[in-house]
Amino acid sequence: SDVPNRFTFVCPYCRQQNLDQEGLVEHCNKFHFSDPTPVVCPICASMPWGDPGYRSANFMEHIHRRHRFSYDTFV
């Protein structure tokens, strides 16, 4: 059974709101895949160990490597 994601995030590029983790990945793939702007990962920033000031140099690579699964499943 799928555990619902308790968090929603804002797109770091265009500020679209209410994206769950999967929705954020899909949204960024569709609208921001080639954007080279360094941005703060909203998923990491929401975590207790996250650094809200750290800008990922390659956000799309980061989000695909780190956020293909939901942390909720493991908490």
From TrEMBL:
Range of residues in the leader sequence: none
Domain spans labelled Di19 zinc-binding: 8-68
Organism expressing this protein natively: Eleutherodactylus coqui (Puerto Rican coqui)
Pfam family, one: zf-Di19
GO MF terms, alphabetically ordered: ubiquitin protein ligase activity
Biological processes annotated in GO: protein polyubiquitination; ubiquitin-dependent protein catabolic process
Descriptive protein name: Di19 zinc-binding domain-containing protein
